[in-house]
Amino acid sequence: MRADDILFSQGFGTRRICAGLVEQGHVRIGGRVVEDPAQEFEPQGLVFDVDGVAWEFHDKAYLVLNKPAGTECSQKPSTYPSVYTLLPGPLRQRPNKGAVQGVQAIGRLDADTTGLLLLSDDGVFIHRMTSPKRHVPKVYEVGTKHPVTPAQVTKLQAGVVLDDDPKPVRAAACEATGDQSLRLTLLEGKYHQVKRMVAAAGNRVETLHRSRIGAFELPADLAPGQWRWLRPDDLLLLSRAP
Ligand code: URA
């Protein structure tokens, strides 16, 4: 693949900008400054640097972000900064089918919700993770305003009716993890689902953290606000039933 095409595919700007970056000596591949935008490289496994910042080539982007509280999952946030501001520019500018789109959050978390957020530019993967038919389990750690009672746990397991659907929704799993905390596993991703289910069961969500999707846990060493590429073993966990 040409050096300028490598940069373009990774979100470093238009083809012209990418050719300019190479011609002006901003790009090193294999430790050497590349001068010819047309020079060819094998992109798989390639690490190059632009102005001294190392960048891994990824054909498709699959990321995990530990979402901090006070951030919105929207590209056009209304109140808080967007989670996309936590990512380096190229991840927000990767081309996709002719348009500059960058990675997309896979499902949304509320502004005050923390934890595991996946992002990708692979439409098939995004669909696979969000399709209601796939029933990918999502695990939430919930802090509640009032003490958790066995009756509330039973209600959440049996199913509660939310205001937008007469059909009850139930937690795939629910357990009290403390006096005022719950672990809830959901197979759907309805709007404010945890908060509405907990309210319908007679309590109130004070804090909400997503800890797991499928068999993939939020990496313990990923601090709030940090992201990393998903590795092949992570993707395997995400594709497997937990
Ligand atoms: N359910 C909610 O209520 N909020 C979230 O952010 C995620 C699930």
CATH superfamily of the largest domain: Pseudouridine synthase I, catalytic domain, N-terminal subdomain
Poorly predicted regions are: none
CATH architecture of the largest domain: 2-Layer Sandwich
Instruction: List how many beta strands DSSP finds.
Output: 17
Distance between the termini: 38 Å
Number of domains: 3
- CATH topology name of the largest domain, in short, is Alpha-Beta Plaits
Rounded Rg: 21 Å
Q: Helical region count?
A: 7
Overall mean pLDDT: 94
Structural class computed from helices and strand pairing:
alpha+beta
Largest sheet: 9 strands, mixed
Q: Using the coordinates above, name the CATH class of the largest domain.
A: Alpha Beta
Percentage of residues in strands: 25-35%
Bound small molecules, by name, code or SMILES, are: uracil
**Helical content, roughly?**
10-25%
Order of helices and strands: HHEEEEEHEEEEHEHEEEEHEEEH
Silhouette: elongated
Describe the structure concisely:
Helix content is about 20%, strand content about 30%. It is α+β, with helices and mostly antiparallel strands and about 240 residues long. A hairpin with a 2-residue loop joins strand 11 and strand 12 (about 165-170).
What can you see in these coordinates?
The protein is of the alpha+beta class and 242 residues long. It has 3 domains: 3-56, Structural Genomics Hypothetical 15.5 Kd Protein In mrcA-pckA Intergenic Region, Chain A (Roll); 62-133 and 215-238, Alpha-Beta Plaits (2-Layer Sandwich), CATH 3.30.70; 138-213, 2-Layer Sandwich (Alpha-Beta Plaits). Helix content is 22%, strand content 30%. The protein has helices spanning 3-9, 15-23, 89-92, 123-130, 150-158, 193-200, 232-239, and strands at 27-29, 32-33, 47-50, 53-56, 62-67, 95-96, 99-100, 104-105, 114-120, 138-144, 160-162, 165-169, 173-178, 181-186, 205-213, 216-217, 227-229. α1 crosses α2. The longest helix has 9 residues, at 15-23. Uracil (URA) binds next to α6.
